[in-house]
Design a protein that fits this description.
618 residues, mainly beta, Immunoglobulin-like, 5-stranded mixed beta sheet, 5-stranded antiparallel beta sheet, 5 helices, globular, disordered N terminus
Length: 618
C-alpha cells in the first residue's frame, strides 16, 4: 500500500426542496469540530461503499451490538473495552474504567457469566487491555493482559537509576501476564527485566566501555530523559498477538510500541522457567517504533518541530489480520499528543516494520532510524501545521482536513475492514466513523458516521457543547453476519439506543442538495466500490458517465467499456462494451465461474478511465 496523505471529508449540507424531517436532520448535521449541537446515533451512511456489518462498543457499563442504522441487535450488562470471541462470547473487564480493574469476565450471548478471572496478587494492577489467544505449545486458550507491577526504591537504585532524578517511593513498570482458563499464571514478561543504563558502571545493565544507549534499541533506558521513574511509568494501553510469528506488540501512551517474542520464551508446563526465560535477552525488544530519541537515535520534539518522534498519546496497536488489505502491517491510533504541533490533531498510522530506506520489504524487522524519514508537507497554510518528518515505514496514514474534525486527546481505535476501509473510534467525543482507504487517484472519504448517545448523565438524542469524555467510547469493532461470533445467530434489530427512528444522511441527499448535480445528469466521472466486497458469488457495481467524457462535447454518448482483470493484468471478463449515453448505471457481476482472488475492474469512457479492486472469496 503506498503512503498517502489521507484527509477526512467534513460534510456540510444545504437543504432545499426536502421534507421538514429531512431538513431538520440535515441542518443539524454539522462538523463535530465546530457544531455546538450534535445529533447522536447514525448520521451518515454511504451503503454501497461502507462495509456492511455490526458495530460493537461499550459505554457506561453496557455493550451494544448495532447494525449500520444504529438498531440494537444485542446488548450485555458489561462495557469497558469489549470484544467478541469467535464462539460468540463477550470478553471484557469487570470494571467500567480502562485505567484500572480487578480482572475479566466472559459472558455468553445471553449475558450469562461463563468464565471469570481476578488478579489476586497485591503488587499487580491490571489495566487497559488484554487478548484471548490460542497458545500452540499448551494447545489451549489463554488470556494475555497488561498489569503495572510495583518496584521498590532499593531495586531501582540497584539497577542503575540516578538517585538525583526522583524519590522512587512509588514506582511501577508494566508487565504482560498470561493466564490459562483455570486461572494459573503460565508466562510473564516485565519491562524491568529489559532495561539499560549509562549512569553507573558498577551497577547491572550498564552500557559497557565505549558504548552508549544508542547501542541498545532492544532495551529501555531506566534514566530516560524527561520521564523519571514513577507510578504507571510507561502507561501501556494496548496489546496484540501475532499467531503466525508468535510475537506480541505492546504500546506505551508516551509514544512508542514494542514487539517481543512470546512463543520462543514460553516453555509448556514450566511457568517458572518461562518467566525466567522471558527475563533474559531472549525477551529483549525485537523492534520498537515511535520515538528514537529515547534510545539516542533521533531528535525530540521542540516548539518548532516534532523531530523524529512519530506518535504520541497513542492507543490500540495491533497487526492487520491475515486476509485483509495490508495484512502483517501494524496499525496504531496516533492521538497526536506530545508532538509539539501548533494545532494538535489525531492520525491513524499503518506501519510496515520490515521496510528499509528504499521502502522495500526485507522480511525482517528494520530499526526505524535505519529506514529513514521523508518530509511531509501539509497542503493547507490555514491549518497552521508545520511540515514534519514521517518514517519511511509509515505506509498509510489518515487525518482530517479540519484540524479538529478528528481529534481525541486519549483513547481511540482503528480497524482495517475486508474491503480496505478503516473503522475509526475517536474516544473523547464518542465519534465512530468509517473511511475508505483511498488510492493515488482518490483521497479517503467518510462512508459511515455514528455519535454515541450514551453520556455521563443519560442517553441523549442531542448533545450540546460538552467537555471531552462526556459520551466517550474507548474502542469500537465491526463484525459481519458471517463472522464466527455471529454466524448462525438470529440477528434481529430491535430499537435504537435513544428509541428514535434513524434519520441519517445518504449520498443522494448530498448530491441533490448542491442544486447542480443529480443522479440523472451526472457531472463527474465515478466508479464506485463494488458492494459487497469481498463477495461470493455476485456483487453490484455502479458507475456514472458525464457528457464531458466524450471528445465531442456536443455528443451525449460514446463507447463505454467495463472489464475485469486478474492481478497479472489478464482480461478475465467483459461486463460492458457498447455505446452509452451520459448517466448513472448499475450492474451485477455473477462470478460463479471464476476462482477466488483479488481482481481489478476498469471503466473506460471516451477519454476517461478509472480502476478499483474487488475480492472474490469462495
Amino acid at each position: 500500500m503506498e503512503t498517502n496523505l489521507c484527509l477526512l471529508t467534513i460534510l456540510t449540507v444545504f437543504c432545499a426542496g426536502v421534507s421538514t424531517a429531512q431538513n431538520d436532520q440535515r441542518q443539524a448535521y454539522k462538523s463535530t469540530s465546530e457544531g455546538m449541537t450534535t445529533i447522536t446515533e447514525a448520521r451518515y451512511w454511504d451503503a454501497p461503499n461502507a462495509y456492511n456489518g455490526y458495530t460493537l462498543f461499550g459505554a457506561a457499563g453496557r455493550t451494544y451490538l448495532l447494525d449500520m442504522e444504529g438498531y440494537i441487535v444485542n446488548q450485555w450488562n458489561l462495557g469497558t473495552n469489549p470484544r467478541l470471541l469467535d464462539n460468540g462470547d463477550l470478553l471484557d473487564a469487570t470494571k467500567s474504567d480502562p485505567s484500572g480493574f480487578g480482572g475479566f469476565r466472559e459472558l455468553d450471548w445471553n449475558g450469562n457469566t461463563v468464565w471469570e478471572y481476578a488478579e489476586k496478587r497485591s503488587n499487580y494492577f491490571p489495566h487497559h487491555d488484554w487478548i484471548r489467544i490460542y497458545n500452540k505449545k499448551l494447545k489451549a486458550y489463554t488470556t494475555l493482559y497488561i498489569a503495572n507491577k510495583n518496584i521498590s526504591k532499593d531495586s531501582v537504585l540497584a539497577a542503575g537509576a540516578n538517585p538525583a532524578s526522583g524519590a522512587y517511593t512509588d514506582v511501577q513498570m508494566d508487565a504482560i501476564v498470561e493466564v490459562d482458563m483455570s486461572g494459573n499464571i503460565v508466562w510473564e514478561w516485565w519491562f524491568f527485566n529489559h532495561i539499560i543504563q549509562d549512569f553507573d558502571a558498577s551497577k547491572p545493565n550498564y552500557v559497557g566501555a565505549g558504548k552508549t544507549i544508542a547501542n541498545y534499541p532492544n532495551r529501555i533506558n531506566i534514566n530516560m530523559a524527561g520521564n523519571a521513574l514513577q507510578k504507571d511509568w510507561l502507561h501501556c494501553n494496548s496489546i496484540d498477538y501475532n499467531d503466525s510469528l508468535g510475537h506480541i506488540v505492546v504500546n506505551s501512551v508516551q509514544g512508542e510500541f514494542y514487539i517481543i517474542d512470546h512463543d520462543n520464551t514460553f516453555l509448556a508446563g514450566n511457568p517458572s522457567g518461562s518467566i525466567a526465560l522471558a527475563a533474559t535477552s531472549a525477551g529483549d525488544f525485537l523492534y520498537r517504533f515511535g520515538d528514537p530519541a529515547r534510545y539516542n537515535q533521533g531528535s525530540s520534539p521542540t516548539t518548532s518541530s516534532s523531530g523524529n518522534k512519530q506518535i504520541g498519546g497513542s492507543h490500540h496497536v495491533h497487526w492487520v489480520a491475515p486476509g485483509l488489505p495490508g495484512a502483517g502491517n501494524i496499525q496504531i491510533f496516533n492521538n497526536g499528543e506530545y508532538l509539539m504541533e501548533r494545532v494538535s490533531q489525531s492520525y491513524i498510522f499503518e506501519v510496515n516494520p520490515y521496510y528499509n530506506s528504499s521502502k522495500v520489504n526485507t522480511g525482517v524487522y528494520v530499526n526505524p532510524p535505519t529506514a529513514g524519514y521523508y518530509t511531509w508537507i501539509f497542503p493547507n497554510k490555514d491549518a497552521m501545521k508545520a511540515n514534519k518528518l514521517i518514517s519511511n515505514q509509515v505506509v498509510w496514514m489518515y487525518n482530517s482536513k479540519n484540524d479538529q474534525g478528528f481529534y481525541s486527546t486519549i483513547g481511540g481505535s482503528e480497524q482495517r475492514l475486508p474491503n480496505g476501509n478503516v473503522l475509526i473510534c475517536s474516544d473523547t467525543q464518542g465519534h465512530l466513523f468509517e473511511v475508505t482507504s483511498g488510492d493515488t487517484a482518490n483521497l479517503p472519504r467518510v462512508v459511515w458516521e455514528y455519535i454515541n448517545p450514551v453520556t455521563t448523565d443519560g442517553i441523549k438524542q442531542i448533545i450540546l457543547d460538552q467537555y471531552p469524555m462526556y459520551n466517550s467510547v474507548f474502542r469500537a469493532y465491526r463484525y459481519t453476519a458471517d463472522h464466527p461470533a455471529l454466524k448462525g445467530r438470529t440477528l434481529v434489530k430491535t430499537r435504537t439506543i435513544t428509541g428514535k427512528i434513524p434519520q441519517y444522511v445518504k449520498p443522494a441527499d448530498l448530491l441533490s442538495a448542491s442544486g447542480s448535480q443529480t443522479m440523472d445528469t451526472p457531472q463527474t466521472f465515478v466508479l464506485l466500490q463494488n458492494y459487497p466486497n469481498p463477495f461470493n458469488p455476485s456483487t453490484t457495481i455502479q458507475y456514472q458517465i458525464p457528457a464531458s467524457a466524450f471528445i465531442d462535447k456536443g455528443v451525449q454518448e460514446g463507447f463505454v467499456s467495463l472489464k475485469v482483470y486478474d492481478m497479472l493484468g489478464r482480461e478475465t471478463a467483459v461486463l460492458v462494451a457498447e455505446k452509452k449515453s451520459a448517466g448513472t448505471y448499475t450492474l451485477v457481476w455473477d462470478a460463479s465461474k471464476f476462482p477466488s482472488g483479488m481482481y481489478i475492474y476498469s471503466l473506460q469512457a471516451g477519454t476517461l478511465s478509472m480502476s478499483k479492486k474487488l475480492i472474490l472469496v469462495k
